[in-house]
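Model: Ready when you are.
Researcher: Fold this.
Model:
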Amino acid sequence: MAKDPKTKPTPKPRKTPQMTLADTRLFLEALARAHPDAKSDLVYTDNFSLLCAVVMSAQTTDAAVNKVTPALFAAAPTPAAMAALGAEKIGQFIRTIGLWQAKAKNVAALARQLVEKHGGVVPGDREALEALPGVGRKTANVVLNVAFGEAAMAVDTHIFRLGNRTGIAPGKNVREVEDKLVKRIPADLLRDSHHWLILHGRYVCKARTPECWRCVAAQWCRFPDKTLPPLQRAK
C-alpha cells in the first residue's frame, strides 16, 4: 500500500552536543541565581528521618512522602523506636505512597541495622550506607550530600534527563551521567548543583515539554530543539 504523500515522517530528535566546561559553569551559576536557597523538598529533622524519607521517596514524589512522614516520625523518632514499631505498623502510616509494603520492610530493617551495627547513628561513609536495606547509590549520595556536606551527586530521573538534554553531561545510564557531572562541574559548585538541577528539572526542564522560554540558563544549554511559549507553538 502506497504511503500517503501528504503525511510527513516524524523527524528524529537531534542529538545534543556536549556543553563546554566554560558554559557549564555559566549554566550552573544561572541556576544558582534562580534558586539561591535550594534544598531538598523532603521534610526531615535529623539524619535518621532524612535517610528514611529518601528511602521512601523512590518512585514516589517528595510531596507524597511529606504527607505521611510527620505522623510516622512522631510515632518513631529514633532508629530504636522505628525498629520496635516494625514493618506492619510502619506500613499503616505509609499506605498512600508507591511500593509502601517493600518500603515499610526496608525502613524497619535499616532501623534495626542502625541500632545493631552503628549504635543508632546514621553512618557517614558510602559503604556503610549502601549496606543498609533499601539504600542504593542514589540514596547514599543524597544522604552524603545533605547530611554530611559531601560533594556527592545523586542522579535521579530529573538530573539524568538534564544531563543528556542540556549537554552538561550526556550519558547512556545513571552512573555514566553521575561520573561526568562529578568530573565536569567545578568543585565549588558541585555540592549545590545537586539541588539546582533537581529543581530545574522538576519545575522548568520538564520531561514531556521543557519550558525553554522561561529557562534562566537557556543561552548556555545545547539542546537543539528548544520549545517556544504555548501561544507561539499554536500558530
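Researcher: Now this one.
Model:
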Amino acid sequence: MNTSPKTDNKHICFSEALDRLSPIGLEEMDSIKLMNRIDSKYLTNEQTLLGILSDAAAAGYRVLVTGNERIAPYDSIYYDTEGLKMFYDHHNRRLVRQKVRTRSYVNSGLAFLEIKRKNNKGRTKKKRIRIPQEQLRSFSANPEACAYLADHSWFKAEELSPVLETLFCRITLVNPAKTERLTIDTRLCFKNFRTEKETSLQDAVIIELKQDGRAASQMKGILLDHRVKPVRISKYCVALTLTDPVAKTGRFKVKVRTIEKTIGKKLVTI
C-alpha cells in the first residue's frame, strides 16, 4: 500500500501478536448479524494496541483472515460538493447527514460506491454497490452507480467530485460469542485532491467496536484496562482539518489535539 513517506513514521509490526489469535474466514464473518447494533469508536496508539491484542488473544478473540493475510489495506475516496456540504453538515452538528465515498479492498481487488447515512438517533446505515476498480476516483460514467447514488442519497453524481483519499491498514476481530466485531485501523494517511496537501496520523490507531446491544462487551473491559476511552472521530473530517487551510474546521481542531496527545507528537502536513 502506498503511504506518504514524508509524513509517515516507523510503525510497529503486529504479525507476531496477530498470529496468537485464531483465524476466522470472510464467509463466517459475514454470517454474523448484529441485529441491535451499537457502534463506539476509540482512539489509541500502536504501543497500546500491542497490549490490547495480547488480551484479546487470551480472551479467545479471532482475527479475520483473507487471502492468508491478517491485515488488510484499504483505499477510500471521499466525495463532496464544491462547497463541502457533507463536511459542513458534520461540522455544524446536523444530526441527519450523509457521506459518499468509494472504497477499494486492495487484497481482493473489489471496489464499491458507498453511502453512509446517520439518523437523528445517532445510528449509521451503509448502502453500497459494486463498481469497477478503475472507477474508484470517478464513477460518473457508470449509469448504474449514478442511479444508485440518486436513489439512496440527497446527491447526484454531477454535484460531487473527489476531495480526499484515505489509505490505512485494517485488522478485524470477533469475540468468541460472535456478539461483537472490532475494526482496528492503523497507518492512516490522507491526500487532499483539491489542496494537494498530504498528512498522516503517524502511529495513531482508530478502533470501532460494533456490538449487539443486548450482550455484554468483553472488549470494552479490555479497552478500559488499557485506559482507552470512547471518542467521536471522523477520518474524513480530521483529514480535511489537517489538509485544507481555508475550510472552517474549528470544531475538529480539538480532535487533532486529542490525536497529538495520544501519540505524544505533532501531526505534520506537507
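Researcher: Key takeaway?
Model: The chain has one domain: 15-263.
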